[in-house]
Write a structure and sequence with these properties.
about 400 residues; mainly alpha; Serine Threonine Protein Phosphatase 5, Tetratricopeptide repeat; 4 domains
Length: about 400
């Protein structure tokens, strides 16, 4: 399906529906989304929530990315990010070719430091610089892993693949992030590292969350938990286990399963009390703060928007929390504020997200849907609101 940045999600839904030769009522019956919601979403009067987009994508047999318009190619070209994707794709494709005789990789210590630096830059939302530097690091790490064949070098290679997943996810390339996860699994198996394997299943579950396949996502969380049973007990295991519970909570929330979501949040909170803040353990940002912001996410996924706003107000976030995670949090808070009629507060949250992580925020589908919802009330919004829409390409 062709993507046009000037179209809103509702227009893309209408286009897909007409290709399938379905009426709005027929789509409502297939998707279990109300007729009135579909009508308002297609007209651009109402924003589409992630659960609505997912239900309609399943009913129309199209990827979620087709309906939300990812990747946002015009904006990527404007930011000169589109040209950085193909080198990452090429680097992921040489995983099984063995050592390149024309490449002399740096010592493993230097490569590990570089991989760690790129992970930190992703959390600081320097996506463009990471995307530019990542392909050469993947090439070097691939060469070093095939030459040395040690657990350490395979772990290093798995780390570069995880960064490729982070970058491609943030820029809206779900097909490529799936490839990166497959490569991460391939390297993790050669490293015989169950923690890496469990974390890969967590990231894979998030990919299925974005694709609105909640059943498969839940199964992947279970598989991740089983994989972690082989790992040594300790703080690292606790952190990855806790993060799996948080992922499971969001999946259950999106699936409107409140009891299961609350159970996973409670278990994550119990683990977080033991681990404390753990932002540098596999760069997962786990800890009491992350449990709090995930509780906001879950409440929003359950359509309990007033409760989500109150939870956000009660959640204290440290000043040094990772900008990427904090910007994502403000985007989710903005959505909850919009649905409770707090338009000024919602726009302020979007502005905070932009200030914290401009590249990430620009390519965040939740930001775009929230902006579309606020657009219906723009007569009451400040002049800077229109400027924000121009920046998004909307």
């Amino acid at each position: 399906m062709p993507r046009h940045s000037v179209e809103h999600t509702g227009a893309r839904i209408a286009h897909a529906r007409k290709i399938r030769r379905l009426t709005q009522r027929e789509l409502a019956d297939l998707s279990h989304v109300s007729y009135s919601t579909i009508t308002k979403v297609e007209q651009g009067i109402m924003p589409a929530s992630p659960s609505v987009i997912g239900a309609l994508a399943r009913a129309l047999s199209v990827p979620v990315s087709d309906l939300n318009g990812q990747p946002y190619l015009d904006e990527l070209r404007h930011d000169q990010l589109d040209g950085l994707i193909n080198p990452i794709r090429e680097a992921l494709n040489i995983y099984d070719l063995g050592a390149d005789p024309d490449l002399a990789p740096r010592p493993v210590e230097e490569l590990e430091a570089d991989a760690d630096r790129l992970c930190a830059m992703v959390r600081a939302t320097n996506i463009k610089q990471v995307a530019a530097e990542l392909p050469s690091l993947i090439h070097e790490a691939t060469n070093r892993a095939h030459t040395s064949g040690t657990t350490r070098t395979w772990q290093l290679l798995a780390s570069t693949y995880r960064t490729a997943y982070d970058v491609t996810t943030k820029l809206g390339y779900p097909d490529l992030c799936t490839v990166a996860l497959d490569r991460m699994d391939w390297a993790a198996q050669r490293a015989s590292d169950p923690v890496l394997g469990g974390m890969r299943q967590y990231l894979r579950a998030l990919a299925y969350l974005r694709a609105s396949d909640y059943k498969t996502g839940k199964r992947l969380v279970g598989l991740g938990m089983s994989t972690l049973e082989q790992a040594e007990h300790g703080r690292v295991l606790d952190v990855v286990t806790g993060q799996l519970h948080l992922g499971a909570a969001v999946l259950a929330g999106r699936d409107k399963d409140k009891e299961t979501a609350e159970g996973h949040l409670a278990e994550a909170a119990r683990i977080a009390k033991r681990t404390g803040p753990a932002e540098r353990v596999y760069w997962l940002s786990f800890g009491p703060t992350n449990v709090g912001v995930h509780r906001v996410s879950v409440l929003a996924e359950l359509d309990l928007y007033p409760e989500a706003v109150r939870q956000a107000e009660d959640t204290a976030i440290p000043d040094d929390w990772p900008p990427s995670r904090l910007a994502h949090h403000h985007a989710e808070v903005a959505r909850a504020q919009m649905w409770t009629g707090q338009t000024d507060a919602a726009f302020k949250s979007l502005l905070i997200a932009r200030k914290l992580a401009p590249q990430q925020t620009r390519y965040h589908p939740t930001v775009r849907e929230t902006y579309a919802g606020l657009d219906a009330a723009r007569r009451q919004m400040p002049n800077s609101f229109t400027n924000y829409g121009s920046w998004l390409g909307m």
